[in-house]
Design a protein that fits this description.
13 helices; six-stranded mixed beta sheet; about 30% helix; binds iron/sulfur cluster; single chain; alpha+beta
């Protein structure tokens, strides 16, 4: 692509921008076979960051040469061959670790450069890719994990997500964006894709056009978490299903050409939207797409945060989807292979990832439900989890992440299990733990958000500690949680949370949720 506009609209470019101008991120794919042949030592340090465009980060400590790889899973939907392939990659190369992310993707760890070409081949053979799963590019598209089977969807979004994904996938016209760029396309009426925290979201809507009620989308822009979280704003537009791709291209083009590239921490789309406002943004989109209808009626009426536990009827009569808990989103490869076997035996082989880091097995006929539920694996990967382990989310943390300040995943799991022993509640409380302000674990929308920090104490020196935030939600337009005073030693965190939850239990009304409290 020509970079004239990037130069024209940004007099000063940050250091990362100058690197990206010299070499497009996606070009790393051409170098990887050569590096794989010659070994990790052959990769110049100034090329390490470009691996993100191939979905790979060097895990902590970088010098050891182990990669994390994220694989795009649009809407989180996987067929049986894909699940088996992913499980075998984790088994053969990833020390058995299979993580589900808060954007419905899969992450591997412990990969060596020598192994990456074979992993790419295996992914390609089943129609998967890690291209653009990280980096300043369109990331994996979040969607409705129940697309096509959802009794609560306005219409099936499978083909639209596929069309948009395929357009942006490995597209060098859009591989140099100012920062990461997160898209969601869903017509689930329970806002299962967390629309308000995406850069660009297509949400379910209807409008009467020429006397007929037509189904389509509204457009929300400029959401995002990290250190300065923003909720997306709705534009005065109604978008027909066949216009989604063009509108997505228009917004992405605007971000590419007008997004900020001077200060990296101000480069996300949310800052441009906040400065321009929805009206100016709308005008700019229409300049590119031609006329679009004005806003109609919102068709999402609640928020389920991506939780689908239990056995639930599909829109297809006689079929069910089974929502399962994966504690803090981590499975081992044998568990994934077993779930794939079960899904093939009782359903159509699919497994679907939720942004709550959990799973769905769809297409189970009524008469097979009891037999399916008697399978041993569902003792750990349960259909009806206890309330704390069932509603706990955790980012990767210090185990692998270079930016982390504290350990998260194991800690979150231990705390949730402790709370399930110590506190009984009649409603779930969503607890999200993150290892730094980047908020990959979506701390800001949790009932209780736990953010890791380093803290210096007289007795112990530098320790892992936490800030506690309460009251996040995406209901009623959304509200980020607010920080409580003080910092808590990580070792004291279980006890402090227990006290907080007992106070909540003793003062709340029956069935009153944390949000209503
Ligand atoms: Fe790493 Fe921070 Fe993201 Fe956790 S929130 S995975 S610590 S960058």
């Amino acid at each position: 692509m020509g970079y004239e506009k990037i130069w024209k609209n940004n007099e000063k470019l940050n250091k990362t921008e100058l690197v990206k101008l010299e070499k497009d991120g996606l070009e790393i794919f051409k170098d990887i076979p050569n590096y794989a042949e010659k070994g990790f030592e052959s990769i110049p340090k100034d090329q390490w960051d470009l691996f993100k465009w191939a979905g790979c980060y060097l895990q902590r400590p970088k010098e050891d040469g182990y990669f994390m790889m994220r694989v795009n899973i649009p809407s989180g939907i996987l067929n049986n061959d894909q699940v088996v392939t992913l499980a075998n990659i984790a088994k053969d190369y990833g020390r058995d670790v299979y993580d589900i992310t808060t954007r419905q993707a899969i992450q591997f760890h412990w990969l060596r450069i020598e192994e990456i070409p074979d992993i790419f081949n295996r992914l390609e053979a089943v129609g998967l890719s890690s291209a653009g799963a990280c980096g300043d590019i369109t990331r994996t598209i979040v969607g409705n994990p129940l697309a096509g089977i959802d009794p609560h969807e306005l219409f099936d979004t499978t083909e639209i997500v596929k069309e948009v994904y395929e357009f942006f996938q490995h597209n060098e016209d859009f591989s140099n964006l100012p920062r990461k760029y997160k898209m969601s396309i869903s017509t689930n009426k329970q806002n299962a894709s967390n629309a308000e925290i995406n850069c660009i979201s297509f949400t379910p809507a209807t409008k009467v056009i020429a006397g007929e009620r037509v189904a389509g989308f509204h457009l929300k822009l400029g959401g995002g978490l990290s250190a300065k979280p923003y909720l997306a704003q709705t534009l005065d537009l109604f978008i027909l299903p066949e216009q989604v791709k063009d509108v997505a291209i228009a917004v992405t083009t605007i971000f590419r050409d007008y997004g900020y590239r001077e200060k990296r921490h101000l480069a996300r789309l949310k800052f441009l939207v906040a400065d321009w406002g929805p009206e100016k943004f709308k005008e700019k989109i229409i300049e590119m797409t031609g006329p679009l209808e004005a806003k109609g009626t919102d068709e999402d009426d609640t928020w389920n945060a991506g939780y689908f536990y239990g056995v639930n009827p599909q829109k297809q009569e006689g079929l069910n989807y089974v929502g399962l808990n994966v504690p803090v989103g981590r499975l081992n490869s044998n568990e994934v292979l077993e779930l794939a076997r079960i899904s093939k035996k009782y359903g159509n082989g699919e497994i679907r990832n939720c942004n709550s880091q959990n799973l769905i097995i769809p297409n189970i006929p009524d008469h097979l439900v009891d037999e399916l539920l008697s399978e041993k694996i569902f003792e750990r990967i349960t259909v009806h989890p206890k309330p704390f382990i069932g509603y706990s989310v955790s980012c990767t943390g210090i185990e692998y992440c270079n930016l982390a300040l504290v350990e998260t995943k194991e800690r979150m799991r231990r705390i949730a299990e402790f709370l399930d022993e110590e506190v009984s509640l009649d409603v779930p409380v969503r607890i999200h733990m993150v290892g730094c302000p980047n908020s990959c674990g979506q701390r800001a929308i949790a009932d209780i958000g736990l953010q890791g920090i380093k803290m210096k104490t007289k007795e112990k020196g530098m320790i892992e500690a936490f800030e506690i935030y309460v009251g996040g939600t995406l209901l009623d337009g959304g509200k980020f949680n607010e920080k409580l005073k003080g910092k808590i030693d990580g070792e004291d965190l279980p006890g402090v949370l227990k006290q907080l939850l007992i106070y909540y239990k003793n003062t709340k009304q029956e069935k009153e949720t944390f949000y209503d409290f």
